[in-house]
Design brief:
Pfam families: ABC_tran. Keywords: ATP-binding, Nucleotide-binding, Transport. This is ABC transporter ATP-binding protein. Belongs to the ABC transporter superfamily. The protein has eight helices and ten strands. It is α/β, with parallel strands linked by helices. Strand 1 and strand 2 form a beta hairpin. Helix 5 crosses helix 6 and helix 6 packs parallel to helix 7. Bound molecules: adenosine-5'-triphosphate.
Length: about 230
């Protein structure tokens, strides 16, 4: 199933008193269930702008953007929020954990918006997820008592606890040392495989990009498919 379909997508901004700036230009991309995609680009190439579109945080200036077969511009903003919360998991470089809350409380947070069984079982589901990322023994720890790698694991557990169909990772290992970064990437891969989610990793790090199956390069807002190295 095609989760995301982008055809001839452009994103233009109008900075005050300046000519229009085209940040993304003619982007074509299909993301299927189970895909492992990396997008590599230099600073300023348009990666964050692309991520905002893929994550339904923004809409294209022109072109087609569909999520699960439906044009995103047909979604109301409430529907977009709902789809984003339910179907998309974001992993960022910054862990963005709530500092005064335990690991378990942080992971429970997205389940407060869940319905039915997921809501009523939220503590157990969050604990299982932390177990899965290797932190079953740190449920009650506050973020400042955890290492960077552990904090990223909590953030991953929180992003993926609702079982999203699409995982968007933006420089997920940017704040970690090499070895910790590799094990965090392995973890993201494992969870994506178990839950049959698609994974799109946006990075400037070729070693992280190499782990994917399909490789893309973003250069001055133009996305091209690259051969695996
Ligand atoms: N609202 C805006 N107004 C003006 N320029 C913008 C706006 N948003 C983005 N840009 C410019 O568009 C280009 C692409 O921005 P974007 O943030 O997508 O790049 P990036 O690849 O994510 O960069 P980085 O890796 O440094 O975060 C940059 O030159 C940026 O300055």
């Amino acid at each position: 199933m095609t989760l995301l379909h982008l055809a001839s997508v452009t994103r233009t901004v109008l900075p005050p008193d300046q000519p229009a700036l085209t940040i993304l230009n003619g982007v074509d991309l299909d993301v299927e269930e189970d895909d492992r995609i990396s997008v590599v680009g230099r600073s300023g190439s348009g990666k964050s702008t692309l991520l905002n579109l893929l994550g339904l945080l923004d809409t294209p200036t022109s072109g087609v953007l569909e999520f699960a077969g439906k044009p995103v511009k047909q979604y109301s903003s409430r529907e977009r929020d709902r789809v984003r919360g339910r179907e998309i998991g974001f992993v960022f470089q910054q862990f963005n954990l709530l500092p005064g809350r335990t690991a378990l409380e942080n992971v429970i947070m997205p389940l407060l918006y869940a319905e039915g069984r997921q809501f009523w079982r939220r503590r157990a589901i969050a604990a299982e997820m932390l177990e899965e990322v290797g932190l079953g023994h740190r449920l009650e720890s506050l973020p400042d008592r955890l290492s960077g790698g552990e904090q990223q694991r909590v953030a991953i557990a929180r992003s993926l606890v609702r079982g999203p169909r699409l995982i968007l990772a933006d420089e997920p290992t940017g704040a970690l040392d090499l070895d910790t970064g590799q094990s965090v990437m392995e973890l993201i891969d494992e969870v994506a495989t178990r839950t049959r989610a698609a994974l799109v990793v946006i990075t400037h790090d070729p070693a992280i990009a190499e782990r994917s199956r399909d490789h893309y390069r973003l250069d001055h807002g133009v996305l091209t498919r690259a051969e695996a190295s």
